[in-house]
């Protein structure tokens, strides 16, 4: 599914040049469950941003099922993000004035899905993540774990090919975090490709593949861990 070759990402900050990615080459197959680990500043979040089309590489090639993502213009990149990638973040990033259903509907609005279909799909997704009784609740009326489940349902709204999660349990207590990770395991078992960026070894241990970054480079790539 994912094929990146000699990918670099450089940031210029004043007189300093930051080499966030230093010529990374990597493939990820459809249906894989991958954990990307490393200390702060190692390049793992930069890689996730490039994979999800949130940022562009400075150089190198990125192909998603043979499509040249690195060459996309802004409109093509926005469409790629909306239709093929689902994002889950540590901070949930729900809109506080919207209900759970309305938050899940948002990506479908941008994709041009008709209103009735949006509603039906949002309700079905919230039921799928165990929130069928919270459809009309706003984020402030839900626990952290429930908010993250809404965020996961939103990430699934346009049936993405790849789900990217950045520290998805970082704001949750241990028990709630385990519930969210079990949901990820279930989604992956149903065929969804899953890539989790984390510094938590317990989270990484649940993945079937663990890729470690340091100073913008891959230092290990281990399969069948956990």
From TrEMBL:
- What InterPro entries does its record include? AAA+_ATPase, ABC_transporter-like_ATP-bd, ABC_transporter-like_CS, ABC_transpr_LolD-like, MacB-like_ATP-bd, P-loop_NTPase
Q: Which UniProt keywords apply?
A: ATP-binding, Cell inner membrane, Cell membrane, Membrane, Nucleotide-binding, Transport
Which Pfam families does the protein's record reference? ABC_tran
Q: What Gene Ontology terms describe what this protein does at the molecular function level? A: ATP binding; ATP hydrolysis activity; transmembrane transporter activity
Residue ranges occupied by any ABC transporter domain in the UniProt entry: 2-225
Question: What do the Gene Ontology cellular component annotations say?
Answer: membrane protein complex; plasma membrane
PANTHER family assigned to the protein according to its UniProt record, in alphabetical order: ABC TRANSPORTER ABCH.1, IMPORT ATP-BINDING PROTEIN
Family membership: Belongs to the ABC transporter superfamily. Macrolide exporter (TC 3.A.1.122) family.
This one is known as Putative ABC transport system ATP-binding protein
The organism of origin for this protein: Brevundimonas halotolerans
């Amino acid at each position: 599914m994912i094929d990146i070759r000699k990918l670099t990402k450089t940031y210029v900050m004043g007189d300093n040049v930051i080499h966030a990615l230093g010529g990374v080459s990597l493939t990820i197959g459809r249906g894989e469950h991958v954990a990307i680990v490393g200390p702060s500043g190692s390049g793992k979040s930069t890689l996730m941003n490039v994979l999800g089309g949130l940022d562009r590489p400075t150089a190198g090639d990125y192909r998603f099922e043979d499509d040249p993502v690195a060459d996309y213009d802004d409109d093509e990149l926005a469409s790629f993000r909306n239709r093929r990638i689902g994002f889950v973040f540590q901070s949930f990033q729900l809109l506080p004035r919207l209900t759970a259903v309305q938050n899940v509907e948002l990506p479908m609005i941008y994709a041009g899905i008709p209103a009735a279909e949006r509603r039906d799909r949002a309700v079905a997704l919230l039921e799928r993540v165990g929130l069928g009784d919270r459809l009309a609740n706003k984020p402030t009326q839900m626990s952290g774990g429930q908010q993250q489940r809404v965020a996961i349902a939103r990430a699934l709204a346009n049936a993405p090919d790849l789900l990217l999660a950045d520290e998805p349990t970082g704001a949750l207590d241990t028990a709630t975090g385990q519930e969210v990770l079990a949901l990820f395991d279930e989604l992956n078992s149903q065929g969804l490709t899953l890539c989790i960026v984390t510094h938590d070894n317990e989270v990484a241990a649940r993945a079937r593949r663990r890729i470690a970054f340091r100073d913008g480079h891959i230092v290990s790539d281990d399969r069948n861990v956990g």
